[in-house]
Design goal:
alpha+beta, seven-stranded mixed beta sheet, globular
Length: 280
């Protein structure tokens, strides 16, 4: 089950308490090819594929690993578990391809999906991608009307948005009163302030403030630039955007495959299994 934190001190205290168990458990887990555990979205004991490609040197990235037979990674299963605790009537997710969309579409037939198809595409425009019609949406400028959803989901999107304040304001706009936003981002819990890694200027050029960091993207073989490393300031940004409540949810459970990313730097790069919830 999730433990919810709206400020850093109790979260960090819990993380310190967890760390000895975490290190020993994940050392054993990372040495395996497969691991049998409970897949919450699948509602069954499944055999997880431990490593799924990304690594930190010799350390497999367990946030992207621990993939269930449906193709859901650790972080996507965590996000799915939070979604399945809800009963939304008007849900939306900012993705259209991949196993997370497929699972949630089965559970929530009214789910609307979209993808970012390029800066030159208009909000709400439909394009044919991989033989199907896909709606284009950018979190910075959504094409949806005000108050049209009661649940908005996005997975590792916000760090790629140059102006997250604008994106959070848009998310708040399209949610109805009482609505919820659920998201994952790479979250650096040791940071109080966010780290801005790059700036996009009005002419479209990008100024790098630190060494560029690219993340994988199924629609872009070159990957996509990370503009931010988020810390606890992100919750303040959500509150300033109008959300009544913003919280970090932590669910650490080895049997469920909810573990850290296995980054060897426990003071910065290591990320526990968390998601973020904001309520309007």
């Amino acid at each position: 089950m999730f433990l919810w934190f709206d400020e850093p001190a109790p979260y960090r205290a819990h993380a310190r308490m967890l760390q000895p168990f975490q290190v020993l458990s994940e050392r054993q887990l990372a040495s395996k090819e497969t691991f049998e555990g409970l897949c919450i979205p699948c509602r069954a004991v499944q055999r997880f594929q431990v490593a799924a490609g990304p690594t930190y040197g010799s350390h497999p990235n367990l946030r992207e690993g621990l993939v269930c037979p449906r193709g859901l990674s650790n972080r996507n299963r965590l996000l799915a578990a939070a979604c399945l605790e809800l009963t939304p009537k008007r849900p939306a997710i900012l993705e259209r391809f991949g196993p997370l969309y497929a699972l949630l579409k089965e559970r929530f037939p009214e789910l609307q999906g979209s993808e970012f198809l390029g800066a030159d595409v208009s909000p709400g425009e439909m394009r044919t991608v991989h033989g199907i019609q896909v709606r284009h949406e950018s979190l910075e400028r959504l094409g949806y009307p005000d108050s049209c959803f009661d649940l908005l989901i996005h997975a590792d999107v916000l760090e790629h948005v140059p102006e997250p304040e604008r994106a959070l304001a848009e998310a708040h706009r399209v949610l109805a009163p009482g609505g919820t936003m659920l998201l994952t981002v790479p979250f650096f819990a040791s940071r109080d302030e966010n780290l801005r890694r790059a700036i996009r200027h009005e002419d479209g050029t990008v100024q790098h403030l630190v060494e560029p960091e690219m993340h994988g993207d199924p629609l872009n073989p070159e990957g996509v630039l990370a503009y931010h490393h988020f810390g606890w300031q992100l919750l303040d940004q959500m509150r300033k955007a109008g959300f009544q409540r913003a919280e970090v949810g932590l669910w650490y459970d080895v049997f469920c495959g909810f573990v850290s990313d296995n980054h060897p730097d426990l003071t910065y790069g290591n990320m526990l299994p968390i998601l973020i919830r904001a309520s309007k």
